[in-house]
Every structure is written in structure tokens, then in C-alpha cells.
Amino acid sequence: MPGKRITDLQVSKYKELRGKFSQEAAAAKTGISVASARRLESSVVLPSQRESRHWRTRADPLSEVWLEEVVPMLESAPSLMAVTLLEELQRRYPARFPDSVLRTLQRRVSQWRAEHGDERELTTTTSN
Which of 13, 22, 32, 45 could pair covalently with 49 via S-S, beta carbons 3.0-4.6 A apart? Predict the structure, then answer.
């Protein structure tokens, strides 16, 4: 399944099943793709033993406008939704911000609100 990390248990199970079944069958029984199975064939270490990635895979599309445009809008109206911010950016900069930037903007707004937004009172629920 795309986006889900392969666990150590899946790798161990795949390598165990690989002795009995084809690569495709072992991958299907483990719940991973055949492409991932091919990668696992040559891998010596488990996923938990690999170093985590610390670099960006692509340039930040909002880097040039975040501090100058988006943050002031959020400071003046903290309840603005990311969709509204994106529409405003698209109005100000035609053809520069495609709709695919929305999820990135949602993440950045969520992070900004966690760091700079209004403080919220924590509530606890009791279960019987």
C-alpha cells in the first residue's frame, strides 16, 4: 500500500515465505508490492536499522511567500482555512500555485497554528 512503511515483521515474514513461494506470491501474502519485494531481496538490514531520511525530496513551493504573504494573513485572521489561503495566493500569483499545493499548505498552516495559534484548554474525557 503506498505511503505505508514496511515493518520488520513484514520483512521477516516475506523472507520466510520467499523460500516456499515465488516473489509475487510471497509479496502478496505479506501485503507489500512486488517492487518493494525486489528491493528487499538485496537488502541486508531491517527497516528499523536504516537511518532515517533527513533531506527534502523536492523544493518547498511556499518558501518565497510563506513569511511575507501567508503568515501575515494568518496573524490577522487565524481562523483562515488553507483552501482560502491558496485561493488568495492563486489570485495574487496566477499560474504559480497549482491546486496540488493545497496539502502542503494545510500541513504548514497546521504547524503554524500549533506553534503560534491561540492556546486551547485541554479537556479530558472519563470512561467508565
Answer: 45
Distance CA 30, CA 13 (A): 7
- The three three-digit cell numbers of residue 24, written as one number: 509475487
Contacts of 80 (CB under 8 A, 6+ apart): 73, 74, 109
Contact at 8 Å (CB) between 15 and 40?
Answer: yes
How many Å separate Cα 20 from the centre of its chain?
A: 35
The helix/strand/coil state of 7 is coil
Interacting residues of 127 by C-beta distance below 8 A, sequence separation 6+? none
* DSSP three-state, residue 4: coil
* Domain contains 57: no
Q: What is the mean pLDDT of residues 87-110?
A: 95
Q: Where are the beta strands (DSSP E) in 1-128?
A: none
Three cell numbers at 92? 495574487
Total Cβ atoms within 10 A of residue 108:
19
Does the pLDDT value for residue 122 go beyond 90? no
Whether 2 maps to a domain, the answer reads: no
